[in-house]
Amino acid sequence: xxxxxxxxxxxxxxxxxxxxxxxxxxxxxxxxxxxxxxxxxxxxxxxxxxxxxxxxxxxxxxxxxxxxxxxxxxxxxxxxxxxxxxxxxxxxxxxxxxxxxxxx
Length: 104
Known about the structure:
Blueprint (H helix, E strand, L loop, with lengths): L3 E9 L4 H16 L4 E8 L5 E7 L2 H9 L1 H10 L3 E10 L13
Helix pairs in contact: 1-3
């Protein structure tokens, strides 16, 4: 099976960037403990959004994460802090170049 990379783009309410960032930061330790989590990191994007970049061992571990308590807690924590639904995109790698540089 191939790894799965996910981006989740959060659109903060006006003036809510720091509070949203704080809520996301608090969610990371629980997710890092989940089976199959290889990467779960947030980034401040220059367009005013926050992007979560995730990498999972496979679709089964991603599905378990999506249905688990950490995501439920995160959804509750950010519900009032986002202006529109989170944009989630799932991706599988197209291998190119070296193993270290050719895929997340």
